[in-house]
Specification:
Elements lengths: L2 H12 L3 H8 L3 H10 L8 H8 L3 H6 L21 H10 L3 H16 L3
Length: 116
């Protein structure tokens, strides 16, 4: 199944029209119609807004694989929004020196290994 097929499958599940989807995403209706007619896929910069509006993960939209690892495959990566708690943590981590990153990882591993 292609990305565009998954989009239209999800729209049907949600009972959402192409017009409503267009208004919610800011993607032109003509672009959405092209996906359906020509069986093309959205551009990469549209993926996150599409996922947000449809209530799906990028993993599912791009591959059909659920976050829980159905199809006996789990992604080796995460997709995290910048404005989430984890996004802020990653941003802070990226702004640290190599030494501080190493210390932070050590602290995190120590905390995880504690028995409560």
């Amino acid at each position: 199944m292609t990305i565009s097929e998954r989009i239209f499958e999800r729209l049907a599940q949600l009972g959402m029209s192409q017009k409503q989807f267009s208004e919610s995403t800011g993607i032109l209706q003509s672009t959405i119609s092209e996906w359906k007619k020509k069986k093309t896929n959205p551009t990469s910069e549209k993926i996150m807004v599409i996922c947000q509006v449809l209530g799906v993960t990028p993993e599912w939209l791009l591959s059909g694989i659920e976050k829980n690892g159905s199809r006996k495959s789990r992604a080796d990566w995460y997709v995290i929004g910048k404005d989430t708690e984890l996004g802020h943590l990653i941003n802070a981590y990226n702004n640290m020196s190599r030494e501080r990153r190493s210390r932070l990882i050590g602290y995190a591993e120590a905390i995880v290994s504690l028995d409560f």
